[in-house]
Amino acid sequence: xxxxxxxxxxxxxxxxxxxxxxxxxxxxxxxxxxxxxxxxxxxxxxxxxxxxxxxxxxxxxxxxxxxxxxxxxxxxxxxxxxxxxxxxxxxxxxxxxxxxxxxxxxxxxxxxxxxxxxxxxxxxxxxxxxxxxxxxxxxxxxxxxxxxxxxxxxxxxxxxxxxxxxxxxxxxxxxxxxxxxxxxxxxxxxxxxxxxxxxxxxxxxxxxxxxxxxxxxxxxxxxxxxxxxxxxxxxxxxxxxxxxxxxxxxxxxxxxxxxxxxxxxxxxxxxxxxxxxxxxxxxxxxxxxxxxxxxxxxxxxxxxxxxxxxxxxxxxxxxxxxxxxxxxxxxxxxxxxxxxxxxxxxxxxxxxxxxxxxxxxxxxxxxxxxxxxxxxx
Length: 377
What we know:
Layout: H1 3-14, H2 22-31, H3 37-53, H4 58-68, H5 71-84, H6 94-109, H7 119-134, H8 156-172, H9 176-203, E1 211-216, H10 222-235, E2 239-243, E3 248-253, H11 255-285, H12 291-313, H13 323-340, H14 355-367
Antiparallel strand pairs: 1-3, 2-3
């Protein structure tokens, strides 16, 4: 029997049959034929390429595998993505390449391959992964194949690196005053960069159009996190659309604004989690036991209050010469969002029933590092 035939039989059983013993049958066939391993890997690379054609990007695939399966499957899919990349003939966007670079960097930090164990266990893990990849739905196409814009060669990456470093230090320090100073400096860099982009658009109009990215919104309490991300997006001239079943929001906006949203959301989420942990510890010290309802209400209040602060910050007056630029960019973002998502629904924030959690979350939001942008002039 050829290796291709072995893999075909295993796939027919494990991937296309929903019976109780289908997975075990497919894994047994593969375990009994070591020569099929090469063909099995090649088929996996084909599944990855199919995911790209369905609108998925590298970070999306890694995130969904981590969400639905185990660490061994994450290692397997990372290996497949890295193996498939040299065969990918599509011209990929800078954001796509950055995702691959991050995957490579993580693999370099932890180079151990997925543990094989016995052949049956390994085959079972591979087939579990392929089942998931096979069933990935079609997503809205983002800018995965866009050719790099020459204007993107400005040294924005250095600004991004400085902002990320400052926020990482702010999130790690145990001294509130130091965290405040570091966060303030990061906010100044973000605001300055945004001002530079607006001024550049006013003085030298370019062909740049809104792009989009997907940001993971992970459980638990993902609804409150999605509300927080939406607030950050709107304050930075972007729009966010939450996909609850797949655990992410798609954020639409201009490139520099998308970068600001990613950075600010990540930082605020870390600040919220740190503040929630401290507040919860204080509540427990007082004899409280209802952890889940406290956390849900805390994060809901945090998202609500931060949203109000960000909305106020977004009302910063601008000079007359920039008003048409900002208006046209806002229209472009709305148009792009409507084309990507012609049908969306709104949802209410649910599960908020803990008064102490709400009060603590609102207090933490008031203390969060959220600053108005300076006037665009």
